[in-house]
Structure to design on (123 residues):
């Protein structure tokens, strides 16, 4: 991978009260998502895998990974998302390269909130 490619490889979602539960012999993840209006939504997804994530130098965290449909502008993609409590961070979700690669988007870190979500249907 070229040195010019930076940033998180995988997308991360703010999740609270993360619990791994067994259902029909398989592991599922239950978690709460708090939106900007303080509304809490409970999600349950099959556990895809556990990922080792390096959020800072010399730090490694093990995080559950689930598949989620993400809407950015008018583009909807189903991707792997790792779950972690991000409530102290400036954004509830970090969009990683796993969403951006092949998505035909331009990223300008100097601006934000340039396109509202306009995806129809889904979750």
């Amino acid at each position: 991978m070229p040195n010019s490619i930076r940033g998180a490889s995988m997308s991360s979602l703010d999740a609270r009260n993360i619990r791994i539960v067994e259902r029909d012999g398989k592991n599922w993840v239950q978690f709460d998502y708090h939106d900007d209006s303080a509304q809490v939504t409970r999600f349950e997804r099959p556990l895809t895998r556990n990922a080792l994530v390096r959020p800072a130098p010399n730090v490694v965290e093990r995080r559950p990974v689930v598949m989620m449909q993400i809407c950015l502008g008018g583009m909807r993609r189903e991707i792997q998302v790792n779950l972690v409590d991000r409530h102290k961070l400036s954004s509830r979700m970090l969009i990683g390269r796993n969403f951006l690669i092949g998505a035909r988007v331009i990223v300008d870190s100097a601006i934000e909130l340039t396109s509202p979500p306009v995806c129809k249907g889904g979750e």
